[in-house]
Fold this protein.
Amino acid sequence: MTVLLLVGTRNGGFIIRSPDRKSWEVTDHFFESWSIQHVTYDWRDGSVYAAVNSHIYGPMVARSTDLGKTWVHSSAGLTYGEGSRARVKQVWQLCPGPPSRPGELWAGVEDAGLFRSRDHGRTWEHIESLRRHPTVAAWEPSGGGLILANVLIDPDDPDRIWVGVGAGGVYRSDDGGQTWKALNRNIPAPWKPNPMPEAGQCVHKLRLAPKPGRLYHQNHVGMYRSDDYGETWVDIGANGLPSSFGFAAAVHPRDPDTAYFVPHISDDRRYVPDAAMAVWRTRDAGGTWQKLTNGLPQRHAYLTVLRDGLATDTLEPAGVYAGTSTGHIFASADEGDTWQLIVSFLPPINSVEAVVL
Amino acid sequence: MAARVYLPAQLARLYQIRLPLEVNGVRVREIIAELDRLYPGIKDRLTEGPNLRPYILVFVNQEPADLDTPVSPGAEVRFVAAVAGGSETV
């Protein structure tokens, strides 16, 4: 067994390996000097994809078929066209398609939009239907820009796709991206003239739970759960969590009632409360919460865990991983009960994903 | 006689290019097209749509240039990333 952590940082991507979840080694550093928003593994063929960005040279998507040793990269088609005022500034999220469509890869970008590749990321097409949705006028840049940083595909229906836009809201397509429905019921956007709009909410992280129709959602204004494919949302953070603000969310690989969040103080103080690192876990789908701190720094820890900084693995018991904007990764091999610092002093971490091979 | 082309180190590293490159082209635009033929995708790193990317500068024989600047045989064409930093967004 090998556990790989695929890590995207502000200065390249990293692969960190462990044979036992006790000892860890940084084995690969790729795209040094490029900002990597997301690194993901494609279970269909073992490819690794990276969202590679530069404010000077623009965005591209890279693919490795040898676990990060060598890469090919492209941005062919990653554009809104010369007639558009929107620009593709960064790739924020990559999502491999279903097993029935090998080579399909989705990308969420800034300025917020969705792109699809059918050839492993070599060429891209803009899914124009999303930006033509009548609610798009409600979109506006969040602190990170106007970004589409969430793309999810239903494992039971490859034509059902969710996207999350900051600040724009949750949208779902049931026909492979041809049409979209805004799904933000019960989620406020208090900075809007109408604080409960159809769209314009600031989505930080969406995660699919291993149960049909269930999603967890870290929004700018709270933590939410849906049990009906996003049609309605229940506030699960109001009771028991120290703050409604945070970026990241993660789900247990087998138990749909177990999820993890890292609350931050507020949207103007974006670090963990009391400067004491804590991951919060629910075992009952958000009814109650446990504060997990065993092994995490509890003094002067001004830590931020960004949107894709929290991950789980598929082992039993499940591993949980939290990467911080200070370049530290904390790992738990027992579902969050105890933690160890496994890597220090990486560049600021954008994303962590765990793969068990 | 081809032009001698210099690229920013970050791009040269990405494409594993040893500088300078000998590249044929009568204007900067054609130089970039030829670079893209030799190193597919590099055009998108230097240009966005019909223009140079906002933080890419180009000099021909040390004079500020643009995509339509003529390139004579043996000229030096130097692409430079603007010095900008200290901010995530520049």
Q: What stands out?
A: Residues 5 and 77 of chain B are 5 Å apart (CA to CA). Chain B has three helices and seven strands.
